[in-house]
Amino acid sequence: MQSMTEKKQGFETACAAAVKARNFAEAAKAASGAADCAEILASRTTGAVAAAYAKETASWRQLAEKLEGRKAGTPAADRTDGGAAAPDGGEWLVADKPSITFDDIAGMEEAKRIITEMVLYPMQSPEKARALGLTPGGGVLLFGPPGTGKTMLGKAIAGALDAPFYYASGADLRSKWYGESEQRLSQLLKSAKAQPVAVVFLDEVESILPKRSEGSHAADNRLVTQFLADLGGFADSPNLLLVLGATNRPWDIDEAVFRTGRFDEKIYVGPPDCAARKKILELNLKTAYTSADVDLDALAAAMEGASGSDVSAVVSAAKRSALGRAIREDGDPVLTAVDFADARERIPLSITTEILAPYKRFMDARF
Ligand SMILES: Nc1ncnc2c1ncn2[C@@H]1O[C@H](COP(=O)(O)OP(=O)(O)O)[C@@H](O)[C@H]1O
Ligand SMILES: [Mg+2]
């Protein structure tokens, strides 16, 4: 049987899909469904959790009402305010909350701590944060070599928060909306800013905010200028907005983005150390059987130079080879040391000194 949370999720997904299809009647129905579920969940829980569900109930009811209104008239094209109905920019809203949590991410202690202090705590206790004069929210840039878990961290933040989460990757924004990327990005940010609490995750942010120069495309320049304008003064607003950027190429980002303090926190996400590599091995082997000759400590130690995604890839390759053997020999699927040795030969390690050098130069020049 479906749990109430799953039922609510079903309505949320249906609502997002209907909004996307501009079927506002359907969306309104789904929003009321989500409100009903949230109300039931509120009645079944206590304390902060119940309060969060009550808040959610109210916001779903509100959204349902707005969608009802929209159903009755006001064709979308005539609207200019952007705030009164289902938020434009809603196409970036992530309806299915990722199930990844902070515990699924190895290492990255500093990133987790900063995110916890900047968003999770202030969201849990906004009154306490205000009493301390803390302005919650802000901008955080995660940078570091590919495959170190930056995108994963963004998903975990979405999973941890009871707040709308907007996700846009630079590549999507550019390819899908070529020529109108800046309007799209602007809509996304406006819609997020209109929410009491929201998180915006801009993945591959270097292609959203590339260095402006004489030779660069006018469209690129507009994108950066517009972004800076849209984010201007968001610290003064009573709404809580967290803008996260992730990039493998921080040096390609326009200088002004750093100068103007749009990303107050810059966090280097480096390759996993030995302990983190071991944890990634364990995380990826949670549901698999390994034979006694597999020594994860030794394996983790030997994989110096592996990114998190290399470690995951080695486990996947080892699993495939174990599966092949199990089928050939009609035996149980169990990973052995030989599977790991074969996998390691096939998967090259991606973190070299040449890869790391530009990050070091970037940090030396900037901090
Ligand atoms: N710190 C980590 N903890 C657990 N898994 C990781 C970690 N870093 C990378 N991975 C694995 O590698 C994959 C790719 O990571 P990703 O978040 O896409 O990296 P990035 O965005 O930094 O390029 C993840 O889906 C995960 O399987
Ligand atoms: Mg990524």
Question: What does the model show?
Answer:
By secondary structure, the chain is α/β, with parallel strands linked by helices. The chain folds into three domains: 82 residues; 184 residues, P-loop containing nucleotide triphosphate hydrolases (Rossmann fold), CATH 3.40.50; 73 residues, Helicase, Ruva Protein, domain 3. It is built from 15 helices and five strands. The chain has a five-stranded parallel β-sheet, sandwiched between helices. Helix 9 links the parallel strand 3 and strand 4. Adenosine-5'-diphosphate binds next to helix 6, helix 11 and helix 13.
Descriptive labels:
8% strand, Rossmann fold, five-stranded parallel β-sheet, 367 residues, binds adenosine-5'-diphosphate, Helicase, Ruva Protein, domain 3, binds magnesium ion, alpha/beta
Give a quick precis of the structure:
It is built from 15 helices and 5 strands. The protein has 367 residues and is of the alpha/beta class.
* Strand order within the widest beta sheet: 2-3-4-1-5
Distance between the termini: 54 Å
CATH architecture classification name of the largest domain: 3-Layer(aba) Sandwich
Provide the CATH top-level class of the largest domain.
Answer: Alpha Beta
Write down the Rg.
23 Å
The largest β sheet comes out as:
5 strands, parallel
Provide the list of bound ligands, each named once: adenosine-5'-diphosphate, magnesium ion
